[in-house]
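User: Show me an example of a complex going from sequences to C-alpha coordinates.

Assistant: Sure. Here are the input components:
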Amino acid sequence: MTLRTQLYDEHVKLGAKIVPFAGWDMPVQYTSVKDEVLAVRKTVGVFDVSHMGEFFLEGSDAEAFADYLVTNDVLGAPTGKAIYSPLCRENGTVIDDLIVYKLSPGRVLICVNASNIDKDFNWIRSRHQGFKCNLTNRSSDYSLLALQGPESFETLSSMIRELPDLEYYSVHECVYETKQVIVARTGYTGEDGFEIFGDHETIRALWQKLMTRKVVPCGLAARDVLRLEVGYPLYGHELSDEVNPYDAGLGWTVKLAKSRFVGKEELTKKMTNFKTVKLLLDKGIPREGYPVLNGRNEPIGTVTSGTLSVVLNKGVAFARINLDKVPADEVFLVDIRQKPYEAQLVKKPFVTGGHK
Amino acid sequence: MATNIPANLKYTKEHEWALVEGTTVSIGITDFAQSALGDIVFLEVPEVGSEVKVGATFGVVESIKSVSDLYSPVSGEIVAKNGDLESSPERINEDAYGSWLIKVKIKNPSELDKLMSSEQYTEFCNSSH
Protein backbone atom coordinates (compact mmCIF):
# COMPACT_ATOMS: atom_id res chain seq x y z
CA MET A 1 0.00 0.00 0.00
CA THR A 2 1.26 3.45 -0.80
CA LEU A 3 1.27 6.18 1.79
CA ARG A 4 -0.44 9.52 1.43
CA THR A 5 0.40 12.78 3.13
CA GLN A 6 -2.35 14.48 5.12
CA LEU A 7 -2.66 16.96 2.26
CA TYR A 8 -3.42 14.32 -0.38
CA ASP A 9 -7.05 15.40 -0.77
CA GLU A 10 -5.95 19.00 -1.18
CA HIS A 11 -3.66 17.99 -4.05
CA VAL A 12 -6.40 16.02 -5.77
CA LYS A 13 -8.77 18.97 -5.37
CA LEU A 14 -6.19 21.18 -7.10
CA GLY A 15 -6.03 18.74 -10.01
CA ALA A 16 -2.52 17.50 -9.29
CA LYS A 17 -1.07 14.61 -11.23
CA ILE A 18 -0.17 12.04 -8.57
CA VAL A 19 2.74 9.60 -8.89
CA PRO A 20 4.27 7.02 -6.57
CA PHE A 21 7.50 8.30 -5.00
CA ALA A 22 9.51 6.59 -2.27
CA GLY A 23 6.43 4.60 -1.26
CA TRP A 24 4.21 7.69 -1.24
CA ASP A 25 1.53 8.98 -3.60
CA MET A 26 2.86 12.46 -4.24
CA PRO A 27 1.86 15.38 -6.48
CA VAL A 28 4.34 15.51 -9.38
CA GLN A 29 2.78 18.58 -10.97
CA TYR A 30 -0.36 20.68 -10.69
CA THR A 31 -0.56 22.77 -13.85
CA SER A 32 2.76 23.09 -15.62
CA VAL A 33 6.28 22.24 -14.45
CA LYS A 34 7.54 25.35 -16.23
CA ASP A 35 5.09 27.67 -14.48
CA GLU A 36 5.81 26.05 -11.12
CA VAL A 37 9.58 26.46 -11.52
CA LEU A 38 9.19 30.08 -12.57
CA ALA A 39 6.85 30.82 -9.65
CA VAL A 40 9.59 29.74 -7.24
CA ARG A 41 12.30 31.68 -9.08
CA LYS A 42 10.22 34.87 -9.43
CA THR A 43 7.42 34.97 -6.84
CA VAL A 44 6.54 32.20 -4.38
CA GLY A 45 5.55 28.54 -4.50
CA VAL A 46 4.82 25.86 -1.93
CA PHE A 47 5.65 22.15 -1.83
CA ASP A 48 4.10 19.48 0.36
CA VAL A 49 7.14 17.54 1.52
CA SER A 50 5.43 15.83 4.44
CA HIS A 51 6.79 12.49 3.26
CA MET A 52 10.20 13.45 4.64
CA GLY A 53 11.27 12.09 8.01
CA GLU A 54 11.72 13.87 11.35
CA PHE A 55 13.83 12.49 14.18
CA PHE A 56 14.31 14.24 17.48
CA LEU A 57 17.30 14.04 19.81
CA GLU A 58 16.48 15.35 23.27
CA GLY A 59 18.83 15.47 26.24
CA SER A 60 22.17 16.87 27.30
CA ASP A 61 24.11 14.99 24.60
CA ALA A 62 21.72 15.79 21.71
CA GLU A 63 24.18 18.05 19.89
CA ALA A 64 27.18 15.82 20.64
CA PHE A 65 25.36 12.77 19.29
CA ALA A 66 24.30 14.58 16.11
CA ASP A 67 27.87 15.82 15.68
CA TYR A 68 29.18 12.26 16.06
CA LEU A 69 26.70 10.89 13.50
CA VAL A 70 27.34 13.32 10.65
CA THR A 71 30.43 14.56 8.81
CA ASN A 72 29.65 18.29 9.05
CA ASP A 73 30.20 20.41 12.15
CA VAL A 74 27.18 20.47 14.47
CA LEU A 75 28.86 21.30 17.77
CA GLY A 76 30.66 24.32 16.35
CA ALA A 77 27.43 25.89 15.08
CA PRO A 78 25.38 28.06 17.42
CA THR A 79 21.93 27.07 18.67
CA GLY A 80 19.35 28.13 16.11
CA LYS A 81 21.43 27.03 13.13
CA ALA A 82 20.64 24.37 10.52
CA ILE A 83 23.47 22.20 9.20
CA TYR A 84 23.35 20.23 5.95
CA SER A 85 25.37 17.00 6.07
CA PRO A 86 25.85 13.52 4.74
CA LEU A 87 25.30 10.65 7.20
CA CYS A 88 28.06 8.10 6.62
CA ARG A 89 29.04 4.61 7.67
CA GLU A 90 32.46 3.77 9.09
CA ASN A 91 33.63 2.97 5.56
CA GLY A 92 32.66 6.47 4.43
CA THR A 93 29.72 5.54 2.19
CA VAL A 94 26.65 7.76 2.36
CA ILE A 95 23.56 6.44 4.13
CA ASP A 96 21.61 9.64 3.51
CA ASP A 97 21.95 13.39 3.30
CA LEU A 98 20.01 15.36 5.87
CA ILE A 99 19.63 18.61 7.77
CA VAL A 100 20.36 18.91 11.49
CA TYR A 101 18.37 21.69 13.17
CA LYS A 102 19.68 22.96 16.52
CA LEU A 103 16.33 23.99 18.00
CA SER A 104 17.39 24.80 21.56
CA PRO A 105 20.09 23.54 23.93
CA GLY A 106 19.59 19.78 24.26
CA ARG A 107 17.00 19.61 21.47
CA VAL A 108 17.88 18.67 17.89
CA LEU A 109 15.66 17.88 14.88
CA ILE A 110 17.04 15.80 12.05
CA CYS A 111 15.14 15.89 8.74
CA VAL A 112 15.86 12.97 6.41
CA ASN A 113 14.79 11.73 2.99
CA ALA A 114 11.49 9.84 2.84
CA SER A 115 12.96 6.79 1.17
CA ASN A 116 15.59 6.42 3.90
CA ILE A 117 13.56 6.93 7.08
CA ASP A 118 13.80 3.35 8.35
CA LYS A 119 17.39 2.81 7.20
CA ASP A 120 18.52 6.04 8.86
CA PHE A 121 16.62 5.48 12.07
CA ASN A 122 17.98 1.96 12.49
CA TRP A 123 21.48 3.20 11.79
CA ILE A 124 21.24 6.11 14.20
CA ARG A 125 19.79 3.85 16.90
CA SER A 126 22.71 1.44 16.42
CA ARG A 127 25.18 4.25 17.21
CA HIS A 128 23.18 5.72 20.12
CA GLN A 129 24.88 3.91 22.98
CA GLY A 130 26.83 6.16 25.37
CA PHE A 131 25.01 9.38 24.48
CA LYS A 132 22.65 10.89 27.01
CA CYS A 133 19.68 11.80 24.86
CA ASN A 134 16.41 10.32 23.70
CA LEU A 135 16.03 9.41 20.07
CA THR A 136 12.52 9.41 18.60
CA ASN A 137 11.17 8.95 15.08
CA ARG A 138 8.32 11.47 14.82
CA SER A 139 7.93 11.23 11.04
CA SER A 140 4.28 10.25 11.18
CA ASP A 141 3.41 13.08 13.62
CA TYR A 142 4.72 15.88 11.43
CA SER A 143 3.68 17.45 8.18
CA LEU A 144 6.15 19.67 6.34
CA LEU A 145 5.74 22.48 3.82
CA ALA A 146 8.50 24.17 1.84
CA LEU A 147 7.55 27.73 0.98
CA GLN A 148 10.09 28.90 -1.59
CA GLY A 149 10.72 32.00 -3.67
CA PRO A 150 11.64 35.67 -3.34
CA GLU A 151 8.23 36.53 -1.84
CA SER A 152 8.41 33.80 0.82
CA PHE A 153 9.24 36.06 3.75
CA GLU A 154 6.59 38.61 2.84
CA THR A 155 4.02 35.83 2.54
CA LEU A 156 4.89 33.95 5.71
CA SER A 157 5.42 36.99 7.90
CA SER A 158 1.93 38.19 7.03
CA MET A 159 0.64 34.93 8.50
CA ILE A 160 3.06 34.46 11.39
CA ARG A 161 3.32 37.88 13.00
CA GLU A 162 6.23 37.03 15.28
CA LEU A 163 8.32 35.52 12.46
CA PRO A 164 11.83 36.96 12.69
CA ASP A 165 13.82 37.71 9.54
CA LEU A 166 15.86 34.54 10.08
CA GLU A 167 19.32 34.10 8.65
CA TYR A 168 19.79 31.56 5.87
CA TYR A 169 20.07 28.05 7.35
CA SER A 170 18.69 28.95 10.73
CA VAL A 171 15.63 27.76 12.62
CA HIS A 172 13.10 29.19 15.05
CA GLU A 173 10.09 27.83 16.90
CA CYS A 174 7.04 30.04 16.73
CA VAL A 175 3.26 29.93 16.91
CA TYR A 176 0.85 29.74 13.96
CA GLU A 177 -2.75 30.19 15.10
CA THR A 178 -2.11 28.95 18.66
CA LYS A 179 -0.04 25.95 17.53
CA GLN A 180 3.71 25.52 17.82
CA VAL A 181 5.52 25.21 14.49
CA ILE A 182 9.20 24.91 13.60
CA VAL A 183 10.21 27.39 10.93
CA ALA A 184 13.59 27.11 9.19
CA ARG A 185 15.08 29.27 6.47
CA THR A 186 16.05 26.25 4.39
CA GLY A 187 14.94 24.63 1.17
CA TYR A 188 15.97 22.70 -1.89
CA THR A 189 15.50 25.28 -4.61
CA GLY A 190 18.34 27.79 -4.14
CA GLU A 191 15.81 30.55 -3.58
CA ASP A 192 14.97 32.31 -0.36
CA GLY A 193 12.39 30.31 1.51
CA PHE A 194 11.20 28.47 4.56
CA GLU A 195 10.47 24.95 5.65
CA ILE A 196 7.65 24.73 8.17
CA PHE A 197 7.21 21.64 10.37
CA GLY A 198 4.05 21.18 12.38
CA ASP A 199 1.27 18.81 13.33
CA HIS A 200 -0.99 17.68 10.50
CA GLU A 201 -3.97 19.92 11.27
CA THR A 202 -1.85 23.03 11.64
CA ILE A 203 0.02 22.41 8.41
CA ARG A 204 -3.23 21.69 6.58
CA ALA A 205 -4.60 25.04 7.82
CA LEU A 206 -1.39 26.75 6.73
CA TRP A 207 -1.56 25.13 3.27
CA GLN A 208 -5.16 26.22 2.83
CA LYS A 209 -4.28 29.75 3.90
CA LEU A 210 -1.38 29.82 1.43
CA MET A 211 -3.76 28.75 -1.35
CA THR A 212 -6.02 31.72 -0.61
CA ARG A 213 -2.94 33.96 -0.90
CA LYS A 214 -2.31 32.76 -4.46
CA VAL A 215 0.88 30.95 -3.55
CA VAL A 216 1.54 28.51 -6.42
CA PRO A 217 1.36 24.82 -5.42
CA CYS A 218 4.42 23.06 -6.83
CA GLY A 219 5.07 19.38 -7.40
CA LEU A 220 8.04 17.06 -7.27
CA ALA A 221 8.92 17.60 -10.93
CA ALA A 222 9.45 21.33 -10.39
CA ARG A 223 11.36 20.57 -7.20
CA ASP A 224 13.74 18.32 -9.13
CA VAL A 225 14.33 20.91 -11.87
CA LEU A 226 14.91 23.62 -9.25
CA ARG A 227 17.46 21.61 -7.26
CA LEU A 228 19.32 20.56 -10.42
CA GLU A 229 19.48 24.12 -11.72
CA VAL A 230 21.29 25.20 -8.56
CA GLY A 231 23.43 22.06 -8.41
CA TYR A 232 22.09 20.31 -5.31
CA PRO A 233 22.60 16.53 -5.22
CA LEU A 234 19.74 14.09 -4.71
CA TYR A 235 19.96 10.87 -2.75
CA GLY A 236 19.52 7.86 -5.03
CA HIS A 237 21.12 9.76 -7.89
CA GLU A 238 24.32 11.63 -7.04
CA LEU A 239 24.39 10.13 -3.54
CA SER A 240 23.96 6.48 -2.63
CA ASP A 241 25.19 3.67 -0.42
CA GLU A 242 27.94 3.12 -3.01
CA VAL A 243 29.63 6.52 -2.90
CA ASN A 244 31.40 8.67 -0.33
CA PRO A 245 30.91 12.44 0.08
CA TYR A 246 34.01 13.24 -2.01
CA ASP A 247 32.66 11.21 -4.92
CA ALA A 248 29.54 13.34 -4.91
CA GLY A 249 31.32 16.69 -4.65
CA LEU A 250 30.43 17.09 -0.97
CA GLY A 251 33.98 17.28 0.37
CA TRP A 252 33.11 20.67 1.89
CA THR A 253 30.78 18.90 4.35
CA VAL A 254 33.48 16.60 5.71
CA LYS A 255 35.05 18.31 8.72
CA LEU A 256 38.16 16.27 9.45
CA ALA A 257 39.14 18.71 12.20
CA LYS A 258 36.33 17.32 14.38
CA SER A 259 37.72 15.09 17.11
CA ARG A 260 35.56 12.15 16.10
CA PHE A 261 32.64 11.19 13.90
CA VAL A 262 31.44 8.04 12.19
CA GLY A 263 33.56 7.45 9.09
CA LYS A 264 36.36 9.82 10.06
CA GLU A 265 39.12 7.24 9.77
CA GLU A 266 38.20 6.25 6.22
CA LEU A 267 37.30 9.74 5.08
CA THR A 268 40.68 11.05 6.32
CA LYS A 269 42.24 9.06 3.47
CA LYS A 270 40.22 11.22 1.06
CA MET A 271 39.91 8.42 -1.42
CA THR A 272 37.68 9.09 -4.36
CA ASN A 273 36.26 6.53 -6.72
CA PHE A 274 34.42 8.93 -8.98
CA LYS A 275 34.10 12.55 -9.80
CA THR A 276 30.69 14.21 -9.96
CA VAL A 277 30.53 16.95 -12.55
CA LYS A 278 27.93 19.38 -13.84
CA LEU A 279 27.34 19.41 -17.58
CA LEU A 280 25.52 22.02 -19.67
CA LEU A 281 24.20 21.16 -23.13
CA ASP A 282 23.20 23.69 -25.76
CA LYS A 283 21.32 20.97 -27.61
CA GLY A 284 19.68 17.80 -26.37
CA ILE A 285 18.25 16.95 -22.97
CA PRO A 286 20.44 14.70 -20.82
CA ARG A 287 18.64 12.07 -18.74
CA GLU A 288 19.63 9.72 -15.95
CA GLY A 289 21.56 6.72 -17.29
CA TYR A 290 22.78 8.30 -20.53
CA PRO A 291 26.47 7.55 -21.18
CA VAL A 292 29.05 10.34 -21.02
CA LEU A 293 31.85 10.14 -23.60
CA ASN A 294 35.19 11.85 -24.04
CA GLY A 295 36.39 13.51 -27.25
CA ARG A 296 37.38 10.11 -28.64
CA ASN A 297 33.86 8.77 -28.09
CA GLU A 298 34.99 6.50 -25.27
CA PRO A 299 32.55 6.02 -22.37
CA ILE A 300 33.85 7.80 -19.26
CA GLY A 301 30.80 8.00 -17.07
CA THR A 302 27.04 8.23 -16.71
CA VAL A 303 24.45 10.94 -16.19
CA THR A 304 23.03 10.63 -12.65
CA SER A 305 20.34 13.35 -13.05
CA GLY A 306 19.36 15.43 -16.03
CA THR A 307 16.64 17.70 -17.23
CA LEU A 308 15.90 20.74 -19.32
CA SER A 309 16.60 23.84 -17.24
CA VAL A 310 13.49 26.01 -17.33
CA VAL A 311 15.50 29.17 -16.63
CA LEU A 312 18.26 28.51 -19.20
CA ASN A 313 16.20 26.51 -21.69
CA LYS A 314 19.24 24.21 -21.99
CA GLY A 315 20.01 20.69 -20.90
CA VAL A 316 21.63 20.39 -17.47
CA ALA A 317 23.01 17.31 -15.77
CA PHE A 318 25.01 15.81 -13.00
CA ALA A 319 27.30 13.05 -14.27
CA ARG A 320 29.47 10.53 -12.46
CA ILE A 321 32.83 10.29 -14.20
CA ASN A 322 35.30 7.43 -13.74
CA LEU A 323 38.29 9.24 -12.32
CA ASP A 324 41.08 7.73 -14.37
CA LYS A 325 39.21 8.52 -17.53
CA VAL A 326 38.55 12.24 -17.17
CA PRO A 327 39.81 13.72 -20.42
CA ALA A 328 42.62 16.25 -20.04
CA ASP A 329 41.20 18.33 -22.87
CA GLU A 330 37.84 18.36 -21.08
CA VAL A 331 35.72 17.44 -24.05
CA PHE A 332 32.51 15.91 -22.78
CA LEU A 333 29.82 14.38 -24.92
CA VAL A 334 26.49 12.98 -23.79
CA ASP A 335 25.22 10.03 -25.77
CA ILE A 336 21.53 10.70 -26.40
CA ARG A 337 19.89 7.91 -28.38
CA GLN A 338 23.21 6.92 -29.99
CA LYS A 339 24.02 10.49 -30.99
CA PRO A 340 26.78 12.44 -29.24
CA TYR A 341 25.83 15.91 -28.00
CA GLU A 342 28.50 18.34 -26.85
CA ALA A 343 28.47 19.22 -23.17
CA GLN A 344 30.29 21.94 -21.33
CA LEU A 345 31.78 21.33 -17.90
CA VAL A 346 30.38 23.86 -15.44
CA LYS A 347 31.94 24.56 -12.04
CA LYS A 348 29.38 26.98 -10.63
CA PRO A 349 25.66 26.29 -10.21
CA PHE A 350 23.82 26.42 -13.55
CA VAL A 351 21.46 29.01 -12.10
CA THR A 352 22.17 31.35 -9.21
CA GLY A 353 19.34 31.21 -6.70
CA GLY A 354 18.38 34.23 -4.68
CA HIS A 355 18.72 32.78 -1.20
CA LYS A 356 20.18 34.91 1.58
CA MET B 1 -9.47 13.21 -17.78
CA ALA B 2 -11.51 15.44 -20.06
CA THR B 3 -9.99 15.15 -23.49
CA ASN B 4 -10.66 16.21 -27.02
CA ILE B 5 -10.99 13.33 -29.55
CA PRO B 6 -12.03 14.46 -33.07
CA ALA B 7 -14.25 12.07 -35.03
CA ASN B 8 -12.41 12.48 -38.34
CA LEU B 9 -9.13 10.97 -37.12
CA LYS B 10 -7.78 7.46 -36.50
CA TYR B 11 -5.86 6.58 -33.34
CA THR B 12 -3.18 4.25 -31.95
CA LYS B 13 -2.87 2.68 -28.50
CA GLU B 14 0.26 4.79 -28.05
CA HIS B 15 -1.83 7.97 -28.41
CA GLU B 16 -0.89 9.05 -31.92
CA TRP B 17 -3.54 10.37 -34.30
CA ALA B 18 -3.65 9.89 -38.07
CA LEU B 19 -5.45 12.06 -40.59
CA VAL B 20 -5.99 10.19 -43.86
CA GLU B 21 -6.13 12.28 -47.05
CA GLY B 22 -5.94 10.02 -50.09
CA THR B 23 -2.67 8.14 -49.81
CA THR B 24 -1.08 10.66 -47.46
CA VAL B 25 -1.40 10.33 -43.69
CA SER B 26 -0.60 13.19 -41.32
CA ILE B 27 0.55 11.99 -37.90
CA GLY B 28 0.53 13.73 -34.53
CA ILE B 29 0.00 13.02 -30.85
CA THR B 30 -3.40 13.26 -29.20
CA ASP B 31 -4.69 15.82 -26.76
CA PHE B 32 -4.66 13.07 -24.13
CA ALA B 33 -0.94 12.49 -24.81
CA GLN B 34 0.06 16.14 -24.71
CA SER B 35 -1.86 16.60 -21.48
CA ALA B 36 -0.23 13.55 -19.90
CA LEU B 37 3.25 14.70 -20.96
CA GLY B 38 2.91 18.27 -19.75
CA ASP B 39 5.16 21.00 -21.14
CA ILE B 40 6.64 19.62 -24.36
CA VAL B 41 10.16 20.94 -24.82
CA PHE B 42 11.78 18.78 -27.50
CA LEU B 43 10.76 16.95 -30.64
CA GLU B 44 12.88 14.70 -32.83
CA VAL B 45 11.53 13.18 -36.05
CA PRO B 46 13.41 11.75 -39.06
CA GLU B 47 14.15 13.62 -42.26
CA VAL B 48 11.92 13.64 -45.30
CA GLY B 49 12.63 10.56 -47.41
CA SER B 50 13.06 8.25 -44.40
CA GLU B 51 10.89 5.17 -44.09
CA VAL B 52 8.63 4.52 -41.12
CA LYS B 53 7.10 1.19 -40.15
CA VAL B 54 3.73 0.53 -38.62
CA GLY B 55 4.03 0.04 -34.85
CA ALA B 56 7.73 1.00 -34.82
CA THR B 57 9.21 4.07 -33.19
CA PHE B 58 10.04 6.94 -35.51
CA GLY B 59 11.03 9.70 -33.12
CA VAL B 60 10.74 11.08 -29.63
CA VAL B 61 8.89 13.79 -27.83
CA GLU B 62 10.26 15.08 -24.55
CA SER B 63 8.65 16.99 -21.72
CA ILE B 64 10.77 18.58 -19.03
CA LYS B 65 10.76 15.37 -17.01
CA SER B 66 10.20 12.59 -19.55
CA VAL B 67 11.10 11.07 -22.89
CA SER B 68 8.39 9.32 -24.92
CA ASP B 69 8.79 7.36 -28.14
CA LEU B 70 6.57 8.12 -31.09
CA TYR B 71 5.03 5.10 -32.83
CA SER B 72 3.97 5.18 -36.44
CA PRO B 73 0.36 4.26 -37.21
CA VAL B 74 1.32 3.28 -40.78
CA SER B 75 4.26 2.18 -42.95
CA GLY B 76 5.63 4.36 -45.70
CA GLU B 77 7.92 7.16 -46.71
CA ILE B 78 8.00 10.51 -44.93
CA VAL B 79 7.05 13.14 -47.48
CA ALA B 80 6.96 16.14 -45.14
CA LYS B 81 7.93 17.09 -41.63
CA ASN B 82 6.66 19.99 -39.60
CA GLY B 83 9.95 21.84 -39.11
CA ASP B 84 8.32 24.68 -37.18
CA LEU B 85 7.51 22.29 -34.34
CA GLU B 86 11.15 21.40 -33.71
CA SER B 87 11.87 25.02 -32.81
CA SER B 88 8.57 25.55 -30.95
CA PRO B 89 7.41 22.14 -29.68
CA GLU B 90 5.15 23.85 -27.12
CA ARG B 91 2.67 24.30 -29.96
CA ILE B 92 1.79 20.62 -29.53
CA ASN B 93 0.47 21.48 -26.06
CA GLU B 94 -1.49 24.41 -27.43
CA ASP B 95 -3.07 22.53 -30.36
CA ALA B 96 -2.37 18.80 -30.50
CA TYR B 97 -4.52 18.17 -33.58
CA GLY B 98 -3.26 21.23 -35.43
CA SER B 99 0.30 20.08 -34.89
CA TRP B 100 1.08 17.31 -37.35
CA LEU B 101 4.60 15.97 -36.92
CA ILE B 102 5.13 14.12 -40.19
CA LYS B 103 3.23 13.21 -43.35
CA VAL B 104 3.65 9.70 -44.69
CA LYS B 105 2.87 8.32 -48.14
CA ILE B 106 1.25 5.02 -47.22
CA LYS B 107 2.28 1.73 -48.76
CA ASN B 108 -0.43 -0.52 -47.46
CA PRO B 109 -3.86 1.07 -46.96
CA SER B 110 -5.13 -1.99 -45.12
CA GLU B 111 -3.04 -0.89 -42.12
CA LEU B 112 -5.56 1.90 -41.60
CA ASP B 113 -8.25 -0.64 -40.73
CA LYS B 114 -6.29 -1.68 -37.65
CA LEU B 115 -6.32 1.82 -36.16
CA MET B 116 -8.95 2.86 -33.65
CA SER B 117 -11.91 5.06 -34.46
CA SER B 118 -12.62 8.07 -32.23
CA GLU B 119 -15.25 6.01 -30.35
CA GLN B 120 -12.81 3.15 -29.79
CA TYR B 121 -10.07 5.53 -28.70
CA THR B 122 -12.40 7.32 -26.29
CA GLU B 123 -13.26 3.96 -24.79
CA PHE B 124 -9.55 3.04 -24.68
CA CYS B 125 -8.62 6.25 -22.82
CA ASN B 126 -11.44 5.80 -20.33
CA SER B 127 -10.68 2.16 -19.59
CA SER B 128 -6.91 2.17 -19.40
CA HIS B 129 -6.29 5.36 -17.44
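The lines above are the inputs; the final block is the predicted structure for all two components together. The radius of gyration of chain A is 20 Å.
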